[in-house]
Amino acid sequence: MTTRAVVLIGPMGVGKSSIGRKLAKTLSRTFLDTDSVIAREHGPIPQIFAQHGEAYFREVEREAVARAVADGGVVALGGGAVLNESTRELLREHRVVLLDVSEAVVAGRIGHGEGRPLLSGVDEDPMIRWKRIRAERWPVYESLADVTFDTSRGHIAYVVSAIAEWVQEEEQ
């Protein structure tokens, strides 16, 4: 059944978008990044947070996720998309891949938090904030995940290949 989406979840900076694009190509499926969809339809995400707040953003995000997974394919979610109960219920109908990363590796990926509303503009080191957000969300990620892959080591192609193999085994 190929209408079930392969949904990538996990903390900021794990590589959901990069891996998702390559995974979709490997599996010959469509790819949607819900953050990109939201930005295209509503403007830059930091601007949405600044003008309307996180609650408004999460509702827009919930709608974007519902549309994205409806068509199957590979879908990368923003790190906080799983905070919405309706989204969590929806994800139970799909294959959910949790991506994780070590703190040492993600520090280089997130830098000073630019472009990430929950990490920038706060009186806290972005890495400390990232660790706290990850810890708060981790139980939710784990409860939704069918499988987990670490993106800390090895080339991205290795991770993509391992996920593709898992998807193909699940579909047999």
Automatic annotation (TrEMBL):
It holds the Pfam family SKI. Pathway: Metabolic intermediate biosynthesis; chorismate biosynthesis; chorismate from D-erythrose 4-phosphate and phosphoenolpyruvate: step 5/7. Mg(2+) binds at residue 17. It is found in: Cytoplasm. The keyword Kinase applies. Substrate binds at residues 35, 58, 79, 137. It is an enzyme of class 2 (transferase). Its EC number is 2.7.1.71. SUPFAM superfamilies: P-loop containing nucleoside triphosphate hydrolases. Its cofactor is Mg(2+). Binds 1 Mg(2+) ion per subunit. It catalyses: shikimate + ATP = 3-phosphoshikimate + ADP + H(+). ATP binds at residues 13-18, 116. GO terms for cellular component: cytosol. Keywords: Amino-acid biosynthesis, Aromatic amino acid biosynthesis, ATP-binding, Cytoplasm, Kinase, Magnesium, Metal-binding, Nucleotide-binding, Transferase. One of its GO terms (biological process) is chorismate biosynthetic process. GO terms for molecular function: ATP binding; magnesium ion binding; shikimate kinase activity. Catalyzes the specific phosphorylation of the 3-hydroxyl group of shikimic acid using ATP as a cosubstrate. Belongs to the shikimate kinase family. PANTHER family: SHIKIMATE KINASE, SHIKIMATE KINASE 1, CHLOROPLASTIC. Monomer. This is Shikimate kinase.
